[in-house]
Each structure stands twice: as structure tokens, then as C-alpha cells.
Amino acid sequence: MVQKPSLTIPLAFKKKETDKRARRVKSRRSKLRAMARGQQKIQSQQKNAKKAAEKKKGQAADQKTAAKAALVHTCPVCRTQMPDPKTFKQHFESKHPKSPMPPELVDVQA
Ligand SMILES: [Zn+2]
């Protein structure tokens, strides 16, 4: 009664092992194929590196644009949008001298 399951388990284990070996052979074959394409791969890698560098540059520019966009200040009194706090403060001081200065403008050197 106890022997039956102990017979099926090693069989299942053996099958698993065979699958593993087959997979290993497959990966070795694909490695060989990759080596044959090596030269072509290097060239395309160089191309990709160049492309990636250009992409990186573009991303940096995007980040700068995003940072600039984040700096858009909206006047709480007249809803005018200004690109930087300096302009905002100057605007606020000249247009709304009687309104209380927004706290984020108090420290700004205009
Ligand atoms: Zn305003």
C-alpha cells in the first residue's frame, strides 16, 4: 500500500529532470546561434547605443520642459500665469499691492 505512491513519485521526478535537460540543450543551441550573429549584433548594439544616447538627451530636454511647466505660477487674484516666481512677485507687487502676498512669494528675490 505504501509502495505504490513511492513508485510514481520518482517517475514524475525523472520526467522533470529530462525536461530540464532538454531545456538546457535548447538554450545552448540558441547561444550558438547568437554567436553566429555576433558580428551583426555588435553593429546593431553600437547603433542602439547611439540611439539610446540620443533618446537620453531627448528625455533630459523633456524633463527640463516639465520642470519649466511645473514653474507656471497662477496669480490667485487675476489668474494670470507666469513662468517663474520672480515674474510672479513683480506682477503681484505692481498689480495687487493691496492683496496679501502668497506665502510662496515672500522669500522670492524679485
Ligand atoms: Zn494678478
UniProtKB/TrEMBL annotation:
Subcellular localization, per the record?
Cytoplasm; Nucleus
- Report the GO terms under cellular component: cytoplasm; nucleus
Q: Which residues form the C2H2-type domain?
A: 74-95
Reply yes or no: does the keyword Zinc-finger apply. Answer: yes
Q: What is this protein called?
A: Zinc finger protein 706
User: Lineage of this protein's species?
Assistant: Eukaryota, Metazoa, Chordata, Craniata, Vertebrata
Q: What is its main location?
A: cytoplasm
Q: Where is this region: Disordered?
A: 1-67, 79-110
Small EDRK-rich factor-like N-terminal domain location is 35-71
Instruction: Name the residues that span the membrane.
Output: none
